[in-house]
């Protein structure tokens, strides 16, 4: 059809029951009296941003495929009226927006929703309200429990760096402009040095927000002052199983929201598909830190679709137009290290489970096939004034790239424990969830632990594959206890001759608030002291990692 044949209408009003007007840009075939299924994206990041027109998904191609595409600013953002408070309005507003779109003169009454991250959540929130005209959704890199998935639930380590980056980097400027309080010089001073400000403590009194917007929702969230009914209303996990609307889930192996995306997929009740590529939250090109993965942007999936736009079109064509589904199997995974896509019937994928045990005391130990009969222990140092830095993975904070990086220099620090396997005698294809079973103890009431799996090549460079960070609140000090921790899910092949490595640290800054070794963290306090946690291995406290390997002919 081509862009000359696309009719564009800007800031079309959608009036909600409470009188609030949301505004949308509409792109549709320029055909008199034509009616089409509608695909709608509801976002808080400005519908005029080019990324949402031709980068994440190509709107003109979706129109060419016979859809009317609507990009809508959510309540209180950019062209839309009302007051913005993250997540709490998206269910009811989404229901009304879907039904409004279904009634438009160019609509045939069938609506699909698409979008990633926050606007993946807007789809799930609308879906659990059961709008009758909603026929399919496509949530990408998203979450169903937003407060916990963004910041961390009560008792968890708090991803303060992620929340600070999101609020100051993506939300605040428009908020200040709407309130006629925008001082560009002051704002840009903080924005341009955001990476440094992530170390500012305490996070509950974060200086940039205290200065720029002291009455912001930021402080409600950071201090845990959300109304209980809001927490219940915005947590969608317990309602996803009720849904029958078809869903296309997409995630990235290096996306900060991979685990929440997988959790939403597994909880979902309706027919659904799952695609996971070697993608980060920032881009889906195949560039992931210091690595590049072929066939991540084009020739995607077992069926080698041209790109993510084509995948969306094929999905919506089936559910909104009744066309045949040309996708081989419902789970499509990119196998890193083999640089190819494979198709599966379900996730999680059955395979072979192996255990690798932590062995040898000290700071540099081994991963072995069998536990040592004699117990030993390692001291894990935590210096709050010099925390272990985050690098790679699904980081999603200012000044830090996601993806794979050489982390061997971090593993050389005296506050990082390292356990490495012997060189592998054959390729080792991790496929699924990797877990840690770790015995430990702490001299203080807060125990923090970072676990990271890396691939060590013959030159000694170690590239991160998956990682996690966990906090435990303790009632008994200096007493051994066991933690069972999900380190993460992956599809990654370590090549013959490489080594698999686990490193353990007690901090991961500035992504998470830092344990101050006195019963507090940098979320609420500033001053701390050096402390030592204990990691046990061998004997009756046989710490280990549990890896899932691909079964023969799985892919």
UniProtKB/TrEMBL annotation:
Family annotation (Pfam families): Peptidase_S15 (PF02129), PepX_C (PF08530)
UniProt keyword Hydrolase, yes or no: yes
Alphabetical keyword list: Hydrolase
Gene Ontology terms, MF aspect: dipeptidyl-peptidase activity
Key word Transcription regulation present: no
Domain Xaa-Pro dipeptidyl-peptidase C-terminal: 313-546
UniProt superkingdom: Bacteria
SUPFAM superfamilies membership: alpha/beta-Hydrolases (SSF53474), Galactose-binding domain-like (SSF49785)
Region entry Disordered, spans: 364-385
Alphabetized NCBIfam families for the sequence: CocE_NonD
Descriptive protein name: CocE/NonD family hydrolase
Species this protein is from: Salinibacillus xinjiangensis
